Amino acid sequence: MDATRQAQDGVRPVRVPAGSSVLEGDLGIPEGAGGVVLFAHGSGSSRHSKRNRYVAGTLREAGLATLLIDLLTPDEEAVDIRTAHLRFDIGLLAGRLVGATDWLANEPATRGLKVGFFGASTGGGAALVAAAERSDLVGAVVSRGGRPDLAGASLLQVRAPTLLIVGGRDGPVIEMNREALGQLRCEKRLEIVPGATHLFEEPGALEAVSGLAQGWFRQHLVPAVGP
C-alpha cells in the first residue's frame, strides 16, 4: 500500500508492544468506525498479504477499523521461512494477538471499540485461543481457510461468535473445520465457498469471503442503533 493510498484510507503505521516484542502494523480507522478487526496470519505476513489487505479495505469501506500486524518479528520471520516452525507455534502467535488486543483497548483512537479477529491458516487457531483468553474484549471471530483445530481445548472456552469460512475444494481443511465447529460452544457457523481452493484465488472467491466477513463483523461488533 503506497503512501497516497494510506492517506486516503486513513491508514497509518503503528508499533504494537506484545510481551517482550514490538510488532509492526498498519492501523486504519474510517470515520465513525463501529468496531476494529485485528488480522492474524500464521506466517507473520498479515501486513503485506494482498488477500488480507483486500479484505481489510472492504471492511474499512463498511465502517470497521482494521489493524494488520506481523505476528512475527523480522528475525523470526526469516527463521520461519526456512523452517516453517514458528507459524505453528500457536501459543506464541496467540500471545502476540492478546498483546495487540490489549493495545487496541488502550489506544485512544480505538478504545471503546469491540475487537474482532480475522484469522487465516494457522492464524485462525491462534485467533481462537486469544479470543478465549480475552473474552471480555473480543466480540467476533472470522477464520478464512483456517486451522481452528489447532486451538485445542481452548475451543470450549471461546465465547465470541465465530464464523469459519473454507473453500469448497479444500477437502482436508473442510473436515478440520467441521470437527472444530462441533467443539465450539458459542454462536457459530461454517460457510463453504463453492469452487474455492485454500488461498481463495479463484474469481469471486475472495469477494465472497469479504462479504461474509463484513456481515459477521457488522452484526456482532457494531452497536445496534435504537429507533
Report a brief summary of the structure.
The protein has 227 residues and is α/β, with parallel strands linked by helices.
**Helix count, per DSSP?**
7
* Biggest sheet descriptor: 8 strands, mixed
Could you name the CATH homologous superfamily? Alpha/Beta hydrolase fold, catalytic domain
How many domains, in number, for the residues?
Answer: 1
Average per-residue pLDDT, rounded, comes to 89
CATH architecture: 3-Layer(aba) Sandwich
The separation of the N and C termini measures: 39 Å
Strand order of the largest sheet: 1-2-4-3-5-6-7-8
CATH class: Alpha Beta
Pairing-aware structural class of the strands and helices?
Answer: alpha/beta
Strand content: 15-25%
Radius of gyration: 16 Å
Report on this structure.
It is a single chain. With 227 residues, this protein is an alpha/beta fold. It has one domain (8-221): Alpha/Beta hydrolase fold, catalytic domain (Rossmann fold), CATH 3.40.50.1820. The protein contains 7 helices and 8 strands, in the order αβββαβααβαββαβα. It has helices at residues 3-9, 50-61, 74-83, 90-106, 122-133, 171-183, 205-221, and strands at residues 11-18, 21-28, 36-41, 65-69, 115-120, 138-144, 162-167, 188-193. An 8-stranded mixed beta sheet has the order 1-2-4-3-5-6-7-8, sandwiched between helices. Strand 1 (11-18) and strand 2 (21-28) form a beta hairpin. Helix 2 (50-61) packs across helix 7 and helix 4 (90-106) packs across helix 5 (122-133). The radius of gyration is 16 Å and the shape is globular. The chain starts with a helix and ends in a 6-residue tail after the last helix. Residues 1-8 have low confidence and may be disordered.
